[in-house]
């Protein structure tokens, strides 16, 4: 593997050959410390290697960074909160500075969170930053995941990183739920009450699970300290550990890159970590931190003093989870009542269990399995470092939008009561519409998205073959009118023709020459069907022959071969790609 720096104009000045100026005392001291450390740890070589690592530049790669920075913000502000938060359900009489609560018996957890908000200097801001960063963290993870999905960045060799990502995302939901439950206010207690109900819906062992978690009857005094250990110790340790593995794999595989001039499956075009990316990423951290602080300073979130302490006997109307739990809440509202029935003297509440206990693992399980399913269906065993343009993989893009639509229906369903009130509609009608929508809307979304992708591909073909419409009408000498078309420049054309032709798998007949059916015939048949579903509707990229023919007709001026594969549009660093596992 080699990494080389493209010489910049500055570095090619003639005076580069002058003898180097003697190092300043500061530089000498830094060099001395670095040498001392290297002698004892041997870290210079790996660090030097990492610092030269080339990262491609694209705005969408920032999404992973936003996730990383919001996680760091949660870790920093969370540590601040632990200095004052008391993880105890023990009852005390509140005597802090928030007058409406004076004299009310509350838990120590609740009282300490109100104290953080009103009596600890900067406490309210830090609490708000913690909560806003948590919300942003999960938004960023989700959008980052969509970027990875729609561009096919999960394909070989990045499947493991996709699976790690799925686990990270699921754990982030649990971490958020645990944090939300810590202040022990009316909302968080209602959330815990719901969680207790979910657990009890598991047949046979449900009540035992609940007793185990709450150390007896709900709410008990154990749940707050237990959630605290999970929230500040167990889950952050797992999240950070998995994240290190995640980013380590990004370094090992190197980053994917969007197709473009000079970018191939075997190189990485971009800037090195040091100094360009380090400066960019460092600056970007402060932008994310700054934006989070600004929102937190201006917009109240979770004003627990307004809700009051948790009281198991109080009925809370309008309790809402944080946004990322909305889909599970929606599923609970849509599952039909007949899924709850009595048999063998027991009540089975599958309507609750499916929505609350099974939905999340099933959803993440399917997501984690997708790269492997796609690989099986397409038979594509190759490594991919160049990303797909979403339009060039219409079925995958359609499936993604279909899944998002399903998620969206559940999310909207979680607000069916508010919609009914605000829009003056019947909640039952809304529920029926959402139930139907859960099955019908994703299919429509899949179909429409696929058609849009195919149309965009057709448009790309048209552009390549016939150039851009200029709007200039020319009249010929014999009186005919036609519109002038402008040929695309080579860079744009390259982007539109670089993708591969896709075809369904050609599968074996399923029987040998003696007519003996192979034991895997059924599986192969299914694979053939899915492969045909995946690739049946497709638009092939323009071939050099087609372009030459168009060129001959005077539509396009240059051939595809002339596309500037080995040039870049800006000064860039390039490093060659490696085979995972074969590079030191
Ligand atoms: C990335 C992971 C994290 C997420 C998503 C998260 C989320 C949350 C949320 C939503 C709350 C409720 C905030 C509120 O009161 O409005 C919370 C509370 C809390 N979190 Fe975290 N947190 C994370 C990491 C941490 C870490 C690493 C620590 C400690 C080292 C921590 C310590 C706390 C404490 C002490 C509270 C209770 C105080 C309070 O609610 O103000 N959190 N967390
Ligand atoms: C704690 C949550 C996460 C953090 C902090 C995180 C961070 C990052 C960062 C910084 C990168 C490199 C820059 C980029 O491509 O954006 C990256 C790449 C990647 N992430 Fe994540 N990620 C998280 C969750 C996820 C999830 C939920 C998935 C998918 C299910 C995922 C899949 C990937 C993949 C496949 C890559 C390699 C992409 C490529 O090379 O183009 N990540 N992640």
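Q: What amino acid sequence fits the structure above?
A:
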């Amino acid at each position: 593997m080699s990494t080389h720096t493209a010489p910049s104009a500055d570095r090619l000045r003639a005076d580069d050959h002058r003898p180097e100026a003697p190092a300043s005392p500061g530089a000498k001291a830094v060099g001395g410390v670095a040498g001392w450390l290297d002698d004892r740890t041997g870290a210079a070589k790996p660090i030097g290697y990492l610092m030269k690592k080339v990262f491609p530049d694209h705005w969408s790669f920032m999404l992973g960074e936003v996730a990383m920075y919001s996680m760091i913000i949660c870790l920093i502000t969370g540590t601040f909160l632990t200095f004052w938060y008391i993880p105890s359900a023990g009852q005390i009489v509140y005597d802090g500075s928030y007058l409406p609560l004076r004299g009310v018996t509350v838990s120590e957890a609740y009282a300490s969170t109100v104290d953080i908000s009103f009596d600890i200097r900067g406490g309210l801001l830090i609490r708000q930053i913690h909560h806003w960063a948590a919300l942003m963290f999960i938004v960023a993870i989700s959008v980052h995941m969509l970027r990875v999905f729609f561009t096919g960045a999960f394909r070989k060799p990045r499947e493991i990183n996709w699976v790690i990502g799925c686990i990270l995302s699921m754990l982030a939901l649990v971490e958020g739920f645990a944090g939300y439950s810590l202040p022990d206010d009316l909302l968080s207690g209602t959330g815990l009450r719901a969680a207790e109900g979910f657990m009890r819906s598991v047949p046979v062992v449900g009540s035992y699970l609940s007793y185990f978690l709450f150390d007896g009857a709900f709410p008990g005094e154990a749940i707050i300290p237990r959630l605290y250990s999970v929230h500040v110790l167990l889950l952050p340790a797992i999240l950070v550990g998995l994240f290190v593995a995640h980013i380590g794999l990004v370094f090992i595989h190197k980053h994917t890159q969007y197709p473009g001039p000079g970018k191939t499956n075997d190189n990485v075009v971009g800037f090195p970590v040091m100094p360009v990316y380090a400066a960019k990423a460092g600056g970007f951290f402060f932008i994310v931190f700054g934006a989070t602080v600004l929102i937190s300073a201006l917009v109240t979130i979770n004003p627990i003093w307004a809700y009051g302490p948790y009281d198991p006997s109080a009925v809370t109307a309008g309790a809402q989870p944080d946004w990322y739990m909305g889909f599970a809440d929606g599923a609970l509202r849509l599952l039909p009542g007949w899924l709850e029935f009595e048999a063998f003297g027991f009540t089975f509440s599958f309507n609750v269990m499916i929505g609350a206990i099974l939905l999340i693992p099933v959803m993440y399980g399917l997501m984690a399995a997708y790269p492997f399913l796609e690989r099986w269906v397409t038979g594509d065993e190759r490594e991919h470092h160049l990303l797909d343009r979403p339009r060039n993989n219409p079925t995958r893009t359609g499936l993604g939008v279909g899944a998002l639509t399903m998620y969206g229906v559940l999310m909207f369903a979680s607000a069916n009561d508010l919609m009914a009130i605000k829009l003056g509609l019947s909640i039952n009608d809304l529920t029926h519409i959402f139930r139907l929508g859960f099955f019908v809307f994703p299919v429509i979304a899949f179909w429409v998205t696929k058609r849009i992708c195919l149309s965009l591909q057709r448009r790309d073909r048209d552009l390549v073959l016939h150039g851009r419409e200029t709007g200039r009408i020319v009249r010929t000498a014999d009186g005919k009118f036609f519109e002038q078309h402008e040929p695309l420049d080579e860079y744009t054309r390259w982007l539109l023709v670089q993708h591969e032709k896709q075809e369904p798998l050609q599968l074996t007949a399923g029987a040998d020459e003696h007519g003996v059916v192979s034991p895997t015939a059924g599986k192969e048949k299914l694979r053939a069907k899915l492969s045909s579903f995946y690739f049946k509707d497709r638009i092939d990229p323009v071939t050099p022959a087609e372009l030459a023919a168009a060129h001959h007709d005077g539509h396009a001026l240059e051939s595809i071969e002339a596309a500037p594969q080995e040039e870049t549009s800006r000064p860039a660093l390039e490093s060659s790609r490696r085979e995972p596992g074969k590079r030191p």
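Q: And what stands out in the fold?
A: The radius of gyration is 30 Å.
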